[in-house]
Amino acid sequence: MLIYMDDSIFSETAKRVKASEIREILKLTQKPGIISLAGGLPNPQTFPLEEIKKIVNDVLNSNNNGLQYGLTEGDPELRQYIAQMMCKYGITCNPDDILITSGSQQGLDLISKILINPGDIVLVEAPSYLGALSAFRSYLCDFVDVPSDGEGIRTDLLIETLETLKEDGKKPKILYLVPNFHNPTGITTSEKRRKEIIKIASDYDLVVIEDNPYGELRYEGEHLKAIKSYDTEGRVIYLGTYSKILAPGFRIAWALGSGELIKKMIIAKQAVDLHTNTFGQRIAALYSQNYLDKHLVKILNFYRIKRDVMLSSLDEYMPNECKWTRPEGGMFNWIELPEYVDTKEMFKDAINSNVAYVIGSAFYIEENLGRHTMRLNFSFPKDEEINLGVKRLSEVIRRWL
Q1: Contact indicator for 188, 210 with CB cutoff of 8 Å
Q2: pLDDT in tens, 270-316
Q3: In this predicted model, what pLDDT tens digit does every residue of 31-79 receive, in sequence order?
Q4: CA angle, corner 127, sides to 122 and 133, nearest 5?
Q5: Fold type of domain 11-40+294-400
Q6: How far apart are CA 58 and CA 287, in angstroms?
Q7: Fewer CB in 10 Å around end: N or C, the chain?
Q8: Among 3.40.50.10860, 3.40.640.10, 3.40.30.10, 3.40.50.1360, what is the CATH number of 63-290?
Q9: CA separation (Å) from 311 to 83, 144, 148, 384, 398?
């Protein structure tokens, strides 16, 4: 029997949260025959099935440690490996600086839980990762967005924004960034901007959340030093994940921070789930120690081909009026159409033409922004689907032009 409840029964948080627009869009992509360039999924062909099968047996044969309760902080061997892995990004840390989380999304939620009071201001890039916006919004923050360009967030406009807020008596607390192969644009923040960001954070007393889910998926060029590597004051929280380099189903990720920040996150996690699943952590630890380096070479070659197919297809089919990013890694391309084309209105036409994308406005705080943009994914579709999907999409766009 259904019991009617009016809104008064729900908390202010529940009233404010809303369903993910992307996930609602993805429901429409299940229609047979549709080529979806909309998702943000790793390709199942990159999952190391044989290695996982062997590791599962090894874990089960090792005194059942993988089936028992574990430390809130996470598996010691896994944290030790991650601490060593962070050196490639210029980060010097120890295992005590690391908390293993149930996906990066939990890391975002725990950060929000320990830092955000209702009405606090969170600074984000425009556009920005939708999952982070959802996590912060749940804690009743106020957003201020700062435009980005081909080098990442515009640091000149960031300073200008901070000064304007200061004149109004407002003090932001958090700056959220995805500096490597940004979701949704695929852009990488330049080294110059990274150094400027840490100085601005120090000058204006900001906590920086450096979210790096795609950093290992670099197909050309060299790894840039993390923003965290320039942090001498302990004001950067770095987030990493195994979802793109092992398998997202394990929900193994980590937060790296200094002093009280990471300690408060550990305490907050104890109230949520006590600890991240032990079995998955043991698998991730053994996988990292024995297979990760070789597996990365394999999946980088696999995704590089897909990235190149996407770029060559865009070059071949897209109208001259469109612009798109050329990412050095990650999973996404960002497409800009002339401003008079509304990609949300165009979406139904695309579905009827058996191709799907994610509308760009979903990644903005202000719904009227980014209406002429879209995000395309190249990691999940087959190579031939990427080419045909871009061809179909270009035909739709030409009709709207």
Answers
A1: no
A2: 999 999 999 999 999 999 999 999 999 999 999 999 999 999 999 99
A3: 789 999 998 999 999 999 999 999 999 999 887 678 999 999 999 999 9
A4: 45
A5: Aspartate Aminotransferase, domain 1 (3.90.1150)
A6: 11
A7: N
A8: 3.40.640.10
A9: 35, 32, 22, 13, 18
